[in-house]
Amino acid sequence: MAMLLALVPIVILALWYAQQTAYQQQKISEIYTKNQSLILSFNGLKSDISALEKAHLNNQLLNNAQLQKSIENKWQTTKKRINFLKNSYPTEQLVAKWQQLQLLTPGEQVSEIDYEQLQRQLQSIEQPFQNVLKAKLEFQAQRLTQLNQYFLFGLFVLIPLLVVISLLVIRRVTRQLNALEEVIWQLGEGCFDTPIKLNGSEEFAALGTELDWLREELQRSHKQKETFLRHVSHELKTPLASLTEGNSLLQSGSFGAISPPQQRIINIMDDALSRLAILIDDLLNYSAASHPLAQQQHSLNHIKDELIKHFSAQIDESNITVQWPTQRTSVQLPYLPVKLILTQLIGNALQYAKSSIEVEYRVVRNDIHISVKDDGPGIDLSEQHKLTQPFYRGKHSENHSGSGLGLAIVAECVKQLKGTLRWQHTHQGCHICIQFQSYGGAKNA
């Protein structure tokens, strides 16, 4: 509506200008045609007077009654032409000269004409007559120029007004789009606690109401999912422990000798129980990462020692070299989220790496940067936006065990730390970087 209100005056101005321009051009054309007719009449008047003067001189010699009658008729036509020229542009200077010219024309006595004086008077009229015709054209040209100036002035006023209104409309639309983008980002990040309210037009506010309803539904669904995962994981722990214990007793031979087919079945059960235990641990970690984690603080060296102990057997079996940070640091890190992040990233790297894994740590002002880099097959660019979704597994994971929750747990922990998770694009392998802020004055020792 604002754009329409701003455009209407410009459209009206353009239509008015087009109409007035056409009208003025028509007037100029009419004046030009009339001037040409008047010039022809004036030239004809001069010719008539010259012809009458010659005819009069001839008649003085011939004294012909018929020629005299013709001269008198010609004078009547000439006087009408003088009246026509006099009434065409009745300006003061011309009217006076035409009246003087009329005084020199005879009434009934054509023989009383003083041709020399009549010629001089006609010559004195010619230049003012030409000036009047020229002034008429110049006046219309000035009107057209003035019309152009009015039009340009109108554009000079209305176009900035249109620009200002356009900028205001764009600013309002952009502000609403930014608000909508922020709300969508909020929902995409799983921030369901903040109510959604969009201010603006009626339709935009209605969209905010619908999005808030969606937020409530997502929040309820998210809570139900977490409750389900937590309860199912805990409920599976007890029967899983019993199954593991029973399988261990069977393997020990306490119930007699085990035949090769039985041993094969026991091995299959043992592998399945191990995968199930990993899946339950991942579900518990994912459920824990989705809630505010205990902010117990430990140094990176303490966390590193625990991770080395945790992965020692897996590292020895895989013959993969793991390079840990060597610098000593006094900074205290949130223990549980950082440990969960590194556990998942190093666990994934051990599955995909060919020969080496490098864990890096550095501090830039108050920002903590932790990265894990391996020389495995890397991450497909088309899959990056899906890898942090729960249970999603990339195309390189077909021949590897896992629950598909590793990077989802990492993403949830990074969210708890209010940090960022990103992939570094390298020619070979995978390079995942975590960045978050330390409020304890991070410094390298």
Automatic annotation (TrEMBL):
<protein>
    <recommendedName>
        <fullName>histidine kinase</fullName>
        <ecNumber>2.7.13.3</ecNumber>
    </recommendedName>
</protein>
<keyword id="KW-0812">Transmembrane</keyword>
<dbReference type="InterPro" id="IPR050351">
    <property type="entry name" value="BphY/WalK/GraS-like"/>
</dbReference>
<dbReference type="InterPro" id="IPR003661">
    <property type="entry name" value="HisK_dim/P_dom"/>
</dbReference>
<dbReference type="GO" id="GO:0016020">
    <property type="term" value="C:membrane"/>
</dbReference>
<dbReference type="InterPro" id="IPR036097">
    <property type="entry name" value="HisK_dim/P_sf"/>
</dbReference>
<keyword id="KW-1133">Transmembrane helix</keyword>
<keyword id="KW-0418">Kinase</keyword>
<dbReference type="GO" id="GO:0007234">
    <property type="term" value="P:osmosensory signaling via phosphorelay pathway"/>
</dbReference>
<keyword id="KW-0472">Membrane</keyword>
<feature type="domain" description="Histidine kinase">
    <location>
        <begin position="231"/>
        <end position="440"/>
    </location>
</feature>
<keyword id="KW-0547">Nucleotide-binding</keyword>
<dbReference type="GO" id="GO:0005524">
    <property type="term" value="F:ATP binding"/>
</dbReference>
<keyword id="KW-0597">Phosphoprotein</keyword>
<dbReference type="GO" id="GO:0000156">
    <property type="term" value="F:phosphorelay response regulator activity"/>
</dbReference>
<dbReference type="Pfam" id="PF00512">
    <property type="entry name" value="HisKA"/>
</dbReference>
<dbReference type="InterPro" id="IPR003594">
    <property type="entry name" value="HATPase_dom"/>
</dbReference>
<feature type="transmembrane region" description="Helical">
    <location>
        <begin position="150"/>
        <end position="170"/>
    </location>
</feature>
<dbReference type="GO" id="GO:0030295">
    <property type="term" value="F:protein kinase activator activity"/>
</dbReference>
<dbReference type="InterPro" id="IPR003660">
    <property type="entry name" value="HAMP_dom"/>
</dbReference>
<dbReference type="InterPro" id="IPR036890">
    <property type="entry name" value="HATPase_C_sf"/>
</dbReference>
<keyword id="KW-0067">ATP-binding</keyword>
<keyword id="KW-0902">Two-component regulatory system</keyword>
<feature type="domain" description="HAMP">
    <location>
        <begin position="171"/>
        <end position="223"/>
    </location>
</feature>
<dbReference type="GO" id="GO:0000155">
    <property type="term" value="F:phosphorelay sensor kinase activity"/>
</dbReference>
<dbReference type="InterPro" id="IPR005467">
    <property type="entry name" value="His_kinase_dom"/>
</dbReference>
<dbReference type="Pfam" id="PF02518">
    <property type="entry name" value="HATPase_c"/>
</dbReference>
<keyword id="KW-0808">Transferase</keyword>
<dbReference type="InterPro" id="IPR004358">
    <property type="entry name" value="Sig_transdc_His_kin-like_C"/>
</dbReference>
